[in-house]
From TrEMBL:
Alphabetized GO MF terms: metallocarboxypeptidase activity; zinc ion binding
GO biological process: proteolysis
Domain Peptidase M14: 225-543
Cofactor(s) needed for function: Zn(2+)
Family (UniProt): Belongs to the peptidase M14 family.
Organism: Melipona bicolor
Superkingdom classification of source: Eukaryota
PROSITE patterns tied to this protein: CARBOXYPEPT_ZN_1 (PS00132), CARBOXYPEPT_ZN_2 (PS00133), PEPTIDASE_M14 (PS52035)
Catalytic residues of the enzyme: E509
Name used for this protein in its record: Peptidase M14 domain-containing protein
Pfam family name, one: Peptidase_M14
Signal sequence residues: 1-27
InterPro entries documented for this protein: CARBOXYPEPT_ZN_1 (IPR057246), CARBOXYPEPT_ZN_2 (IPR057247), M14A-like_propep (IPR036990), M14A_act_pep (IPR003146), Peptidase_M14 (IPR000834)
Localization (cell): Secreted
Amino acid sequence: MADDFKSTLCVVFVGLSAIIAANRVAARPQRGDFELAAGAICNCSSTGGDDGSFDEGNRARYSDEEIETDSDFTIDKESRGFSLTDLVESMFSAVASGIGSIVTSIIGTEKNFRSRSSRVSYKNHQLIRLYPNSQEHVNDLKELEKSESEDVKFWTEPMYNRTTDVVIGPDLVSDLKAFLRYKGIDFKVLIPDLQKTIAHQNPKMTKEQRDDLVTTNGHSMTWKRYHRYGEIVKYLEYLALRYPNIAEVITLGHSYEGQPIKMIKISTGTNKDGEAKPAIWIDAGIHAREWIGSAVATYIVSQLVEKNSSYAKLLDNTDWMILPVVNPDGYEFSHTGDRLWRKTRSNHADDEDDSRFLQLVNRYTRWLWGKCEGVDPNRNFDYHWGEVEEGGASLDPCHETYAGPRAFSEPETKAMADYILANKQNIRVYLTLHSYSQMWLVPWGYTDTKPSDYSELASVAKKAIGAVTKIHGTDYQVGPSADLLYPTSGASDDWAKGVAGIKYAYTVELRDRGRYGFLLPASQIVPTAREIWAGIKTIARLVICNT
Ligand SMILES: *[C@@H]1O[C@H](CO)[C@@H](O)[C@H](O)[C@H]1NC(C)=O
Ligand SMILES: *[C@@H]1O[C@H](CO)[C@@H](O)[C@H](O)[C@H]1NC(C)=O
Ligand SMILES: *[C@@H]1O[C@H](CO)[C@@H](O)[C@H](O)[C@H]1NC(C)=O
Ligand SMILES: [Zn+2]
């Protein structure tokens, strides 16, 4: 009986998904062609700036107690008046929750209806590296990926001649291994229990230790652990207060849950003709779980501001616009709810452009699966939005790469894009920090075709990774996104180049190559940041002229 019931649910779900998908497809925007701003690599003399050794003082002593971040940010919730549709909705909800308890009593709640109020546990989930060595193997893995099981999560796409990292739930581990052996696909267990790695990734800090740091340093950032969004914002605000002549905090907008999206602009002022200087844009934390990016971004901020005298020339020639956490809701949720959360936290069931019926359907499917919040912000930018579906961007709200109901549906991507557009005439370099795989990616992502200036972009990137490797010997690969990763549409670097006309647009996939993947230990923050900073300084030197 339970099985019958489950298959009925499946049929219902497939039907509803098709309706939703059809509705999404209709909302696609049109293509547009854009002129790319011309620009040349110039021969500047050294921009100077020693990577002065990082201040290792005030070493925090960590204990087991995790600090609670102050909840400075209030959540705006619209209050809504009474209406007939609201009444219908609440009746529907009542019916739905009634069905819910019936379903729960028949097939159980734990596995399929994960509660979102508590932390998701990855106890006994394994990270497994697969070595497909034929197109047939790749096809088998793609089929597996298409099953979209809760217990099989692909961290990298299956590609010929490339390894694929997959997280497997405890119930499926032995079946999957049997399947792989049967198919002749080699594999290796990288992490035998994800939850243990999660528990050890980030050293704990007590409230007292944090308060001590604030007393001594004025802020609690350490680069020895990953910090909460509130601490990152406080650090930016501390810098603006302490270094008002070079640092300014700008609120770009608010996230879906109402958190302020704050960036820092580091500038010594206009050039001698009174004009704004050329600028380098760096963002991170588009994907919630990729903590290393935000840590590297704040490290770069600390270098430029707190060690400004070491970077006099770099600051003389260039403005820096740095947005460490594009997606604060997701970032916080990856700290408090699900360490492996990727998307934003929005809920588009109430969108104006969906019919009331579809809203109810959406709500029902969300209730059924309990996990369909959020949009992949890096599929949500308005350039060839929603075009590439195969693995690269999804129109299914439950999917990890859901592109959103329309381009810029997310207040986070919209806020960032508006600021970039308003300043595009000054921004010469667009860098977005992601993880993992150690790649310096060149547009385009949406097509295999390369931009006409591809060789210039690749040549600058190769010099950058040369500088990266010099620091700790870490190898990076340079290449077009669509080749090295997989085709994706609606990514921010494509948009920066295609729409904002920023010639040098790159996505940087930071450490590592999958030993820890998204769970990179905090001890690797400083080495990762030091090498990437060397690469970025090289780009600044190559792209921005003295004159
Ligand atoms: C930069 O300098 C190199 C050698 O010093 C030269 O070959 C190259 O043409 C120069 N590029 C530009 C744009 O001036
Ligand atoms: C597969 O990888 C090997 C080693 O990295 C390389 O030598 C070979 O050319 C690759 N084959 C294809 C078809 O890409
Ligand atoms: C540069 O840093 C030094 C040392 O931290 C500080 O005293 C100085 O005020 C900073 N310069 C500016 C323009 O803020
Ligand atoms: Zn990412």
